[in-house]
Write a structure and sequence with these properties.
Elements (H helix, E strand, L loop, with lengths): L1 H6 L6 E5 L2 H12 L9 E5 L20 E7 L8 H8 L3 E12 L3 H10 L21 H10 L10 E8 L3 E5 L5 E7 L3
Parallel strand pairs: 1-2, 3-4
Antiparallel strand pairs: 4-7, 5-6, 5-7
Length: 189
């Protein structure tokens, strides 16, 4: 995703972080194959968001070092304390900016698709133990956190869109409560 975002003409810069060295090594190898993705347009950091210095916020967006958009794709369902993680992430987002991500709802369908099928030794889409169904977050739980706690910030209404993978057909729009879903929410202040 970071490579695609960096290719957009309207993008000033993209910083992608991951705490896994192997993931960053693969991303940097791909980056070297495309001169349009060189620094400072696209920068990869091998760290967790907790390791980043807090940004400088400003009413003038050009003077701020906070992000206009933060993406969390397939992250929250692997975090032991999503609320604490989000509270750590929010200071890095400029007021008016968007937090966009994807995660998995806790449902019988998601258990079947992610634990039984995707982690099955025969199919082997992901290694066994990749997912913990108890860490999955239903859309209403995530929306309630932003509404009630919100990490000290004010937020707009959370928008969601479910997706489902159909073997042989690929990804299709689905219902948020069944499994994977995308979410987006704007930080008002």
């Amino acid at each position: 995703f970071s490579s695609s975002a960096a290719r957009l003409l309207s993008t000033r810069s993209v910083t992608a972080i991951d705490p896994t060295p192997a993931v960053i090594a693969i991303a940097k190898a791909y980056q070297r194959s495309d001169p349009a993705l060189s620094e400072p347009k696209l920068r990869y950091l091998n760290c967790a968001i907790e390791d980043l210095p807090l940004p400088r916020l400003s009413n003038n967006p050009a003077a701020s070092t906070a992000a206009d958009i933060i993406t969390l794709f397939e992250v929250l369902e692997h975090i032991n304390s999503p609320a604490q993680f989000l509270q750590t992430t929010i200071p890095h987002l400029q007021p008016g900016g968007w937090l966009i991500g994807s995660t998995i709802a806790r449902s019988p369908v998601s258990f079947l698709t992610t634990k039984v099928i995707a982690e099955a030794p025969i199919i082997g889409v992901v290694p066994p133990g990749t997912h913990d169904w108890n860490k999955y977050i239903n859309p209403d739980e995530l929306a309630n956190w932003f509404e009630k706690d919100g990490g000290g910030g004010k937020w707009g209404s959370m928008r969601t869109q479910g997706v489902i993978y159909l073997p042989g057909l690929g990804w299709r729009w689905g219902r948020e409560a069944y499994g994977n879903y995308f979410f987006g929410i704007q930080r008002m202040q």
